[in-house]
Specification:
289 residues, seven-stranded parallel beta sheet, single chain, 7 strands, alpha/beta
Length: 289
């Protein structure tokens, strides 16, 4: 073996590209890796009933695939315009031998969150793991003056209201030993100016995670979060003006693939993390939180 230090993975080519929101996996170049050919489970989540918001693509799809290969049944949400991506996620879960339930749901609406919760309980009877992953951002390089009230409302309602409502509604159905995993971001700790409103919500998610963890610890329920750095998902070409240099500022010189986020969620959901709560797992590619 060589004693030379291991070199970072080479940065793949990311040609500049754009899509209408919310974006789709099929139009992306290169195509994201969700772990289709690489993730191997070992039963860490056997027979767990799990709910994942925003599970049609990106990090959500990677988590759904990993959970299924670890033995969990998966109910996940998608927006109606994301149906083709949702069908692929459902296929991956079923191919792993687990139950897949895809639910069209806009988490910005309280009634939709209640309908989702009712659907999950009707299907599963309980929720062992809730993953709040649905998110929206829109880059505004022109600054705060360019952030309309309409955009601000969409970002806050998607990233915060949906998470809050689903935690409140689902907690009565999470048994002792269950967990909630939220998705914050490096932006919540090192905000980039062009993502001001998004970064604000991601900072709030970290605070909410730690506060809720303290509230429900006596019930034997853990609450943690994952803080991704730049990850190659459909949200990027749908909301960023230039994708050609996306993720180049990480220690590895590239963005993460969704498959590289999934193990953090599996760990936090598993019995092996039974003494871990109020934790923010750094998955930023080298940026300290």
């Amino acid at each position: 073996m060589s004693d030379r230090p291991q070199q970072p993975h080479p940065r793949p080519e990311f040609p500049s590209q754009s899509q209408p929101t919310p974006g789709g996996t099929g139009e992306m170049s290169p195509r994201p890796d969700h772990g289709e050919d690489s993730y191997t489970g070992c039963g860490r989540l056997r027979d767990r009933r799990t709910v994942i918001t925003g599970g049609d693509s990106g990090i959500g799809r990677a988590v759904a695939l990993a959970f299924a290969r670890e033995g969990a049944d998966v109910l996940f949400t998608y927006l109606p315009e994301e149906e083709s991506d949702a069908e692929e996620t459902a296929r991956l879960v079923r191919d792993a031998g687990r139950r897949a339930v895809a639910v069209a749901c806009d988490v910005r609406e309280e009634t939709e969150c209640q309908r989702l919760t009712d659907h999950a309980i009707a299907e599963f009877g309980r929720v062992d793991v809730l993953v709040n992953n649905a998110a929206f951002q829109m880059s505004q390089p022109q600054g705060i003056e360019a952030i309309t009230t309409e955009q601000l409302d969409r970002v806050i309602r998607t990233n915060l209201y949906g998470m809050f409502w689903l935690c409140r509604m689902t907690l009565p159905h999470i048994p002792e030993g269950g967990s909630i995993i939220n998705t914050t971001s490096v932006q919540g700790f090192q905000p980039r100016p062009h993502l001001l409103d998004y970064a604000m919500t991601k900072g709030a998610i970290a605070t909410f995670t730690q506060g809720l963890a303290a509230q429900v610890a006596e019930r034997g329920i853990r609450v943690n979060a994952v803080a991704p750095g730049p990850v190659w998902t459909p949200l990027i070409p749908a909301t960023m003006p230039d994708t050609s240099k996306f993720g180049a500022n990480t220690a590895f010189g590239r963005p993460a693939q969704p498959a590289e986020m999934a193990p953090a969620y599996v760990f936090l959901a598993s019995p092996g993390a039974s003494f871990i709560t109020a934790e923010i797992v750094n998955a930023t590619g080298g940026a300290p939180l």
